[in-house]
Amino acid sequence: ENIKKVCQSYTLKEKANVVQYALHEGNLRAAAKFDLDKTQVGYWVMKLKSKLDEVDHSKFHYLEGGGRKSFFPNKEVQLYRWISEICNAALAVTYNSLKFEMLRIVSEMALKSNNLKKKQLASNFKAFSMWLKCFLKCYNLALRCKTKIAQKLPIDFEQQLLNFQRYDSKIYHNKILDNKTNEANENNPDINSGNFGENEENFKNKENNDATIEENENVLLFAID
């Protein structure tokens, strides 16, 4: 009689224990200890050796292709492109905006599709928070903190910045010159700016001792540019 072998499934944790034992003691001893075929042990070692370091036993892990399948994979790709366009335009993206956009895409598909099954799925699609969480995890997306929308710089930004620096530097130098002039006038009170209003005033020449101008003589001074 042909004895049928009972197929037994092994979890990832059980396979990891076998592979770890095989790496230390060898495939033959691991096969004898866990009552397995040596070929099967060698296959597990070859496939799972590179993945053992990435396994986090504190969380649940799914095999590649495992888990619930997406009902509208093509529409989710379309939603991902829409998110990329919004982000490139420096606009904000919220959870509600993602849900509304996905509902709009699915409703358009339901109107254009002739498949009754797809129409029924589209009508029952609600875009719950669990769906949104799985979508973000699948496409490696994350909703960041709220920030202000960045304003795009003008084309001639560098030229405007250079002009402002020149203007600021000019004001700074003019202020220094004004301060020096005021200090000089305070240190030398005899120095005046003359009669810029072209009015008659009493003038006395104190520097020239040979001058014969009287103290009360009216002298007309003119401002010279």
From TrEMBL:
Ranges of Polar residues composition bias in the record: 184-193
Region (Disordered): 182-209
Domain of life of the native organism: Eukaryota
Protein name (Swiss-Prot/TrEMBL): 22875_t:CDS:1
Organism lineage string: Eukaryota, Fungi, Fungi incertae sedis, Mucoromycota, Glomeromycotina
